[in-house]
Amino acid sequence: MTLQHYLALSAIIFTIGMTGVLVRRNLIVMFMSVELMLNAVNINLAAFSKFLNALSGQVFIVFIMAVAAAEAAVGLALIITLFKNKPTVNADELNTMKG
Amino acid sequence: MIELGILIAPLVALLINGIFGRLYIKDKAHYIAVPAVLVSLLISIITFFKVMNGYRVDAVVYEWVLADNIVIPFGILIDPLTAIMLIVVTFVSSMVHIYSIGYMHHDKGYWRFFTYLSIFTLSMLVLVMGNNFLMLFVGWELVGLSSYLLIGFWFHKKSAADANKKAFVTNRVGDFGFYIGLLLVIVTFKSLNYSDAFNHEAINAIKGAGFNLFGIDFSLIDLMTFGLFCGAIGKSAQFPLHVWLPDAMEGPTPVSALIHAATMVTAGVYMVARCNPLFSQAHITSEIVVYVGAATALLGATIGLTQFDFKRVLAYSTVSQLGYMIMATGTGAYVAGIFHLFTHAFFKALLFLCSGSVMHAMQDNLDIRVMGGLIKKMPITGYTFLIGCIAIAGIPPLAGFWSKDEILAMAFATDHKLAWFIGTVVAFMTAFYMFRLWWLVFMGEPRDHHLYDHAHESPWQMTLPLVLLAILSVVVGMLFGYPLEGGYIHQFLGPVLTPHGAHGHEMAHSTATLLMILSIVVAVAGITLSYIYYMKSKDLPEKTIKAFRPIHKLFYNKWYFDEIYDALIIQPCITISKFLWKGFDANFIDFIVNAFGKVANFFGSVFRVIQSGRIQTYIFTMVVGVVILVAIFYVG
């Protein structure tokens, strides 16, 4: 397998994630899609790390995983709080910020 | 330096009463304030005797302001002039402190009153003890502040609140000039120390200096002293800024005695005397000083003749006597001016404290038309008041005679004949209106029996100061002023108050005697005339008023000064302010502010459509943006 294979896989997962964020209405699903995008980036970094024979890419992956964990914690907490105030997780109905 | 104790004692009292007074000390505030001021008095007396034997201090306590090459220390100067002022301030302050124990007895703000008195005493002492202009200025402003606080002591009364504002604002006008004078001093001498500014070589060096303004040549020293004198006009209630002093009588009577008769208002006289090396070289300013003083003396006396309010008569009498002092300093008779300040402090404080005692007995009534015959009810107040009247009228051997006669003699000798003439006329009026008070209040028959029946002598805390002040009013003149023009006061103050290069004004002995006899005759005539007016033929005052109605009206309405200032200054100020408020501010400034708001509103309404509240739209926009950025980056 060459670098291109990895990059293609990463691009596909990233696109799936982005599409998910854009088209799905459920906040939880959107959230999961964001995680997909993050992991696509991780694959990308790992591939380049191997290709360039440099460890810094992998170090970045560890950082991204730490950030993703924190983000998941905060994001889920936000969603739960939202749900308590307004019994829905549908992004379309959460439009009180409309100008 | 033991002299520092004079400052520290009131400072300690002020801190203790100020911090703990409201909650813990309350009506025991005098246990702290009175001993403190007595300590100051004791040290002042010791210092006075030391100074008599040639003791001098000009010491730096610490260096206060260090700016480039200008160093302004917190320094203390003790010389004969300071010593005399220390005695005046601490003695009258002590008497007033003791008197206030009785006078302010039931007041809710008892502790506050004593705190303010301590502030005042401290600031006045800083004013007279400083060895540089900055300390003079600091003391000058601090006494202004304490005067403001004490005039408005009963601030719930609108008249008191108005009066303290008036006093403060009027003083600002004078202080503006004072400040310019100080700046000229610092620019000229590169220092604010008295010892640098009063150095006669330095003064000689700038004698020729001057500048041309609007085509008129001003000498630097004239301008400098005129600026300083403006401060004295405000603080010492001279024409044309005298209007605040009579209104200041809204404050408690002990305050009127201490601040607005004996000490603070004489700060201007002290300052001019302190700056005598400058003033004696400023010939134009000196002439202005003489005639401002003479005009004030006349103004105060004429108004005093017609008033019916006990304290106002005394207030105008103070204005008039301050005019005398200022006039004396203008003629170069600095010693006579300070001597009059010294004697006046005792008898005028006495008169005011008597008026407070009468007020107490009359249930705070001040109209002399309802009084009468009070001598039977309150003999101590009555007889001490009589002593004060004789002293101010200038009957020998009481205090006022010696100092007033010297002032008039000096005015005559220095060829200020007009000032001398005004001074003599004013002496006549003074005797008349002071005895008018005496006859109307203490002699004759009671006019209001209800008030009369409830009248009573005041407690010992109030009468003790009266007696002590009365004793001094009798003796100080003789002790220091005998023989005329050659008394001990000249020997004492001469070294500091004789400007370099001043030449004595010798008068023929016969002329001096003639002037002295004339001033006694004038005083006796005033007293006799008031006896005829108010005891013998009681319809005479009415007849005189009828005969000279326009003049009486002018005097009674205080020469319409308040009305003139109202029309010329206050009303235009209000009109301009109203225009700025309703015209300029509401239409122009507000227009600009509103315009900013409207512009923001407009853009907001345009861009609000973008903000749909739909998360997907936002994310989509973001993705498109990122793509565009990447594209630009890639292409560029």
Structure description:
Chain A has 99 residues and is mainly α. Chain A has helices spanning 3-23, 27-52, 56-85. Chain A is built from 3 helices and no strands. Chain A is elongated, with a radius of gyration of 17 Å. In chain B, the strands form 2 sheets. Chain B has a two-stranded antiparallel ribbon with strand order 1-2. At the A-B interface, helix 1 of A face helix 27 of B.
Strand order of the largest sheet of chain B: 1-2
Major sheet characteristics of chain B: 2 strands, antiparallel
Measured on Cα atoms, how large is the radius of gyration of chain A? 17 Å
Q: Write down how many β-strands of chain B occur, each being a DSSP E stretch of 2 or more residues.
A: 4
Helix content of chain A: over 70%
Q: Pick out the low-confidence regions of chain B.
A: none
Average pLDDT for all residues of chain A: 89
Total helices of chain A: the number is 3
Give the termini distance of chain A in whole angstroms: 51 Å
List keywords for this structure.
heterodimer; A: 99 residues; mainly alpha; Helix Hairpins; 3 helices; elongated; B: 636 residues; two-stranded antiparallel ribbon; 4% strand; globular
